[in-house]
Amino acid sequence: MSTGWYIFLPWSPRNAASCWVLRFIVHPKPGFLEPLKYDGELSIIINDWWHNAVHEQELGLFSKEFRWVGEPQSLLIEGRGAYNCSLVPTGAVPNSGDCGIIKLHPCGIGGGHNMTVVEADGHYVEPVEVDNLDVYSGESFSVLFTANQDASRFYWAGINVRGRNPKTPSGLAILNYLPNSPTMRPTTPAPVSPLWNDFALSLS
Fold first, then answer.
1. Of the candidates 203, 34, 23, 30, which has an alpha carbon nearest to the alpha carbon of residue 124?
2. Do β-strands 40-49 and 99-105 pair in parallel, antiparallel, or remain unpaired?
3. pLDDT tens across 62-95, in order?
4. Residue 186 near residue 154 (C-beta atoms within 8 A)
5. pTM, to two decimals
6. What is the DSSP string of 102-135?
């Protein structure tokens, strides 16, 4: 297995509607020189959340008249999201000028921050700069991110459903530069996702 961060989904017929999402790390062999330079790394897991009970979902999946679970009610970033009108964002806290590597496991960051894709599913790729990224189920990407914007401000990061007409609200997190207080929120609007059916963008 290649060096990198991976996700593991323990699954069985008894938890067909829900499962754990675990991350594990394959470290490089001793003496291996990584072809990337960065100041720190952060792994972010993105997943769905259905608010109704797992047993209720299973009842529809295993019933004679099959009922699909439908769209999730929330999108989670590192297991946190919005529910009952309360926003519970996740905060990343780079120092101004730092370059970090972010591991995205199946988004965009506002305020002028771009990302450089350097790894896909554990394999290095030719670097490409993007301002948003399609991540499909089971995929993982590594992106280089430089904290090069106004360090006195707070910035939104957002995730959205792509590939089908979404009924799920955006998942949001706050990018917070140190040493600012993590209790503050951005004063700018949250990022807007590309249209769900903009397939040309996905292929570009």
1. 34
2. parallel
3. 888 888 888 888 888 877 776 665 554 545 556 6
4. yes
5. 0.74
6. EEEE--EE-TT--EEEEEETTEEEEEEEES----
